[in-house]
Specification:
By secondary structure, this protein is mainly α. It folds into two domains: 7-47; 49-118. The chain has helices at 7-15, 20-47, 50-60, 62-67, 70-77, 81-92, 96-117. α5 (70-77) packs across α6.
């Protein structure tokens, strides 16, 4: 569900004596949420290579990947569409044993990352 509020209506809500506090709190929580999302995205670009970022997308955003054009996905993970094509070919052409080993490596790296950030 998406809710849109015009600037004029937002000002009315902020000036309302009973709603002002709650609206300011809502705005602060919204800003904090987007700041955390931005921070996570920066960490991904610093700590992970493009292939790992694509694998994360496959794991957590598979439904979005099925509906999104490849050039948007490439732009999101910071590579060219040609590089994304190479990564996809490499990932999907791995034999099952190598995929299992690769997944184990990725899980190990994720656990290491979680331990380092706590």
């Amino acid at each position: 569900m998406l809710i849109t509020i015009s600037y004029k209506n937002m000002q009315l809500l902020l000036n309302h004596p009973l709603l002002a506090y709650k609206m300011e709190r809502f705005d602060r929580l919204l800003a904090e949420h987007y700041l955390v999302c931005f921070e996570d995205r920066i960490k991904l670009f610093i700590l992970k290579n493009p292939e790992e970022r694509y694998l994360d997308l496959l794991q957590y955003g598979k439904d979005v990947l099925e509906r999104m054009p490849q050039h948007y996905i490439a732009k999101y993970i910071g590579i060219t569409p040609v590089s994304l094509s190479r990564i996809r070919r490499r990932i999907f052409s791995l034999p099952m044993q190598n995929k299992y080993a690769f997944n184990c490596i990725m899980i190990h790296q994720s656990i290491s990352y979680l331990l380092l950030t706590e």
